[in-house]
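[09:14] KT: can someone run the structure on this one? pasting the chain below
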Amino acid sequence: RVAHRAERARAALSGETLSAFEAERGPMRIEALLAPPERARAGATGLALLVNGRPVRDRMLARAVAHAYGSVLDGGRYPVGVVWIEVPPEVVDVNVHPQKAEVRFADARGVFDAITRELHAGLSRAFALPQLPANPFATLPGSTPTLRALGDAAARAREIAANAYTPPVMSPAALLSERNLFSSATGGATTALGGSDPFGDRGLYASLRFIGQVRSMFLVCEGDDGLYVLDQHAAAERVTFDRLRRAHATRAMGMQRLLVPEVVELAPTEVALLEENAEHVAQLGVEVRAVGDAAVAVHGVPDLLARRAEPARLVRDLAAELARPGARAFGGAIDLVLATMACHGSVRAGDAMAREEVEALLVALDGVDFAGHCPHGRPLVMRMPWNELEKKVGR
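[09:31] RB: done, structure tokens below
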């Protein structure tokens, strides 16, 4: 039945390339078929959610799935796909809505954390490459809707749920083994089932042979299966973002102090936000101090960005990120903040790159999450298969 419902989901989302995932956390089981980040939409109309086989509309669950994509999905955007969540009936209340379209969990925070963490582990590897079009001159993924024949997510969910299976019965002892049902320290195994690992043992990017730089913007490489073109800024951004995120997570973000503090004019509300979040900002390797109501003095920047970042631009963009309408709380938005910072410390379009720099960048890409996308979700590589290139020249 599980295989059958997945087939029905793929048929309903026939215009999408979906990757499959399975994960467990305590008594919770998660299965998902999800599209790559470049297919995301404003609003959750393309995301179907089912709890114990019942289609639901739940903002918390939709946000948890979106957060699993990290920085590659901007606020307010949601992936396309289907997520099945199986939990013991004792820990979920389905009677909070007349049509039973909403649910309430006994441990809502634990559910949110489990979905976000477990799905992220599989997503980051499955989407190591973006959805590569067979014809690179066709319309890029995400530019036009392809689900013309589909209704809203609830209608699709009802269709998919027609063959839903009954979840296995959990023992009461298993349910009560931990106070937080879904926050097991060991978590569960997350597996991506959508196809073979594109990286293999040696790493896909490291296996490419660098041919040359085009317009000081694109890196042209040769692979076994085709020609690869990488956006050098987007690729460098991804690597810088990963280093910033690791340093922040381990509280190892170093700071380089400026010899002369740089004064930056800001809106009074932005100055207030920077002061309000001074401790968090310092953990990012940035030291700012208010100079009156409409300016700050920048005293230090992250050492990872010191060689390239312009302090004024970095602080302005950091303040703008904090002030965005509808933004998440600082802790929940940290990936978005780090993504903004990574832009400032990376190779830019127009920068000349030596072969050694390019080869080091390719090797580094093999070691990061979502290696096919910049931190803001834009695909960073395009592939033209050899047979497609041969067709173009009439061979």
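[09:33] KT: thanks! Residues 133-187, 193-200 have pLDDT under 50 and may be disordered.
[09:34] RB: yep, looked fine to me
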